[in-house]
Amino acid sequence: MAAGFASIGVGQRDVVAVLMPNCAEFVLAWFALSKLGAVVAPLNTAYRGPLLAHALDLTEAKFLITTVELADGVQAVHDQLPHLDTVILREKASETPDLSDLSVRSLSDLEASGLDFTAVSNADGDLAMLLFTSGTTGRSKACELSHRYLVRHAQTMVETLGLRSDDVLYSPFPLFHIDATVLTVLPALLLGATAAIGERFSVSGFWDEVKSFGATVFDFMGATLTLLYKQPPTPGDGSNPVRLAWGVPLPDFAPEFEERFDLRLLEGYGSTDAGIAMFEPLDQPRRRNSCGKPLEIYDVRLFGPDDREVPVGQVGEIVLRPREPYLLSNGYFRQPEATVASRRNLWFHTGDLARSDDDGYFYFVGRVTDSIRRRGENISALEVEELVETHPDVQEAAAFGVPSELSEEDVMLTVVARHGAHVMPAELADFCATIMPGYMVPRYIDVVASLPHTPTEKVEKHILVQRGVTPTTWDRALANRS
């Protein structure tokens, strides 16, 4: 396959965008392009219109690998892509939609080219991948990931989690996300183990897929553990091959989950920019609500708004420095101002809030931009959500601030009811009043069929913020007046 790419002019430092669902061709193309020293830019398959045009234009990719189905979206914006020259389809080129003046090839044609090529010797700091941030709060940025970043973070997963060559590492998340690529496929490659990548996360099909793969390790994120736990228990819940699951966030019912499914849960902390920076120690008792301790490869601190370290126990922004070269992303591709801003005062600023204890454990609080300011109080949206999700009829919750007529913000809550249950906003507000301070109790509550999610199951909160208060929203202030 590498020879085929070389035959159409793909070379060192060329950016090749990949817009494909999870499939073997995705991984094979990634490895083949790495042999040429090319840069792989996986794109979110949910991108359409302006989002797709923005991502492709930002990468300045001349080549795009995609499928016939997804090529329709490319066709709709191709006139906004001055750099794109060649589209490579997973299927035969004869099945392609009209892509006008773009050259269209197929992977099978390239594989049959038979051209000789010389593999490039990539240096540690050479750019290997452009991996986009999740974009839950705005437009995604493309993180520049070096070859050493990819390999070293895969090694860190092996060392920290005690992964073995006989493991089957399973991820149901997209290959355009760090969990599936850097933290699942590459550790398996280093170990000679098996990487099992599902097509997508499915609540109903999750355990069947785990058993069919013989998965011994899987990753979780967002609402996945909650969705799995709230399924009706069955006698065979503990009859699965999994020994370890890692990810974020770890819910309060983690011990019950572990007992029910007979496995160990492990929480960590990381990002696309920095890879995995913290993990719970495997050989020590769990600290409730802790995302663990910093790994030796990073110096991690908590800073206040003045970029000075806050005392133990106080909330601050997580900042970090690597102790080895090329552990951080090299920056944001073609966005130098954003790169400089994120590395203010020679520390990488994550935008995440946490506190620490005397033993060096960190406790994630929320995003700097995911807090609600109400009546002079700073409210963690994550804390509101965690408390609301203890209600037995609530499947999932998202809290955010909406403008208040009294200045600052009021708390708004959007919830999804558990299957077969009904959530009454007034009753939920009364429940909240019994478990949280008065200033945290939501004024507005919307009960909806589903929340908008990214393909990695993170709530797209910016969509909810833009929607704001709707005609169907229950208002506690109005209810109290009646």
UniProtKB/TrEMBL annotation:
Residue ranges annotated for the AMP-binding enzyme C-terminal domain, each copy included: 383-458
Residues covered by the AMP-dependent synthetase/ligase domain: 1-323
Molecular functions (GO terms): ATP binding; long-chain fatty acid transmembrane transporter activity; long-chain fatty acid-CoA ligase activity
Gene Ontology cellular component list: plasma membrane
Keyword field contains Glycoprotein: no
InterPro entries: AMP-bd_C (IPR025110), AMP-bd_C_sf (IPR045851), AMP-binding_CS (IPR020845), AMP-dep_synth/lig_dom (IPR000873), ANL_N_sf (IPR042099)
Pfam family, one: AMP-binding
Record-level GO BP terms: long-chain fatty acid import into cell
Presence of the UniProt keyword Ligase in the record: yes
UniProtKB keywords: ATP-binding, Ligase, Nucleotide-binding, Plasmid
Gene3D superfamilies membership: 3.30.300.30, N-terminal domain of ligase-like
Family listed: Belongs to the ATP-dependent AMP-binding enzyme family.
PANTHER family in alphabetical order: FATTY ACID TRANSPORT PROTEIN 3, ISOFORM A, LONG-CHAIN FATTY ACID TRANSPORT PROTEIN
Protein name listed in UniProt: ATP-dependent acyl-CoA ligase
Protein's organism: Dietzia lutea
